Amino acid sequence: MHIGCPKEIKPQEFRVGLTPNAAAEAIAHGHQVTVETQAGAGSGFPDEDYIVAGAKIVGTAKEVFDTTDMIVKVKEPQAGERKMLREGQILFTYLHLAPDPAQTNDLMESGCTAIAYETVTDRNGGLPLLAPMSEVAGRLAPQVGAWTLQKANGGRGVLMGGVPGVGPARVVVIGGGVVGTHAARIAAGMGADVTVLDRSLPRMRYLDDVYGGTFKTSYASAGNTIELAREADMIIGAVLIPGAAAPKLISRAQLAELKPGAALVDVAIDQGGCFETSKATTHQDPIYEVDGIMHYCVANMPGAVARTSTIALGNATMPFMLALADKGWRKACEDDEHLLNGLNVHAGQLTYYAVGKALGIDVLSPQLALKS
Fold first, then answer.
1. 244 pLDDT exceeds 90?
2. For residues 319 and 339, is the Cβ–Cβ distance under 8 A?
3. Is 283 a catalytic residue?
4. Is the pLDDT at 246 greater than 80, yes or no?
5. In which order are the strands placed within the sheet that holds 216-219?
6. φ and ψ at residue 25, rounded to 5 degrees
7. Among 191, 196, 194, 195, which Cα is nearest to 159's?
8. Distance (Å, rounded) from C-alpha 306 to C-alpha 40?
9. d(Cα 189, Cα 8) in Å, to the nearest integer?
10. What is the pLDDT of residue 241?
């Protein structure tokens, strides 16, 4: 198979879909690899590293899209990139289609086969290609939230760990999954008073058993959520429904009940955000204010630490990328039901139920897509 890796063009996105090591592995399996020039520069991988691995470097994204069988990226294809996709081509990347009808329609019109990192599963019910970036985003969330809390940035002017005689910041993390757990660990490590909210009693038992001395847990009922939010200096939204739009957990009306200058960090913004007032921002202009409450809603948080993120993502995606290249997408998905769960679009039809429900589009089951 001929594998292509274009340079990411989303603002302030420095990651790359294919590391030189992944390129070398694919070439060792007998495949061709073409990489757009400077695609890896933002992650510290110069063109020379890809050339040493055996890849071909080309000057434009169009050359990558026009000549390859599978496109491997990080972020969802932007409008210009979607126009270059063609029927029968495989797209392997993050998609986050539920809040994005324009992208969904473009992918369907292209005729490509689009497999989303964020809906590939594993035998434990986890999301192995989302987990590495969830870990990074979770660890970043308290760091960027602490910056947002600084008075010069419009925040409350509260130090995370406090000082002797002055209490620490109060942090509420909504969601006790991968993002929430890592966010809580880092916030607690910064000295904050941290409470994690979740609706799963088994998950809360696990968190209490493992981290009971580090942070607290509480049940995420609507009443309990707003009660704790009223006392919080920082609220981190870390709720995920795989492939679906994120639920809105704090409404605009409820902002009036929060402390002036409190920081909302919405890690679920790729799936539409879990605060009603959330809108996607960039690393260049990351925060904005609504009704006295500061919002940090950067849609590609892990891009800020591109080298760490790229290597972590590449470690996770490489086995799946090689399976798709070695076997073709049909055989790879027939052999691995978890990879099949990543199939979101094929030959003009949507194949992921949660996206169809969110956007009101009819869905073809992925099992039937295999036979089409």
1. no
2. no
3. no
4. yes
5. 216-219, 193-198, 170-174, 234-237, 263-266, 293-296, 287-290
6. -65, -45
7. 191
8. 10
9. 33
10. 82
Catalytic residue among 31, 96, 182, 346: 96
Residue type, 286: P
Q: Give the residue among 11, 12, 62 at the shortest CA–CA distance from 37.
A: 62
Distance CA 100, CA 48 (A): 36
Cα 167 from Cα 222, distance rounded (Å)? 27
The fraction of the chain above a pLDDT of 90, given in percent, is 94
285 in active site: no
pLDDT confidence of residue 29: 98
Tokens 């590293």 correspond to 49
pLDDT value, residue 273: 95
pLDDT of 245 > 90? The answer is: no
Q: Which pLDDT value is given to residue 125?
A: 87
Interatomic CA distance for residues 53 and 67, integer angstroms:
19
Length of the chain, in residues: 372
Which residue in the list 100, 233, 270, 336 is annotated as catalytic?
270
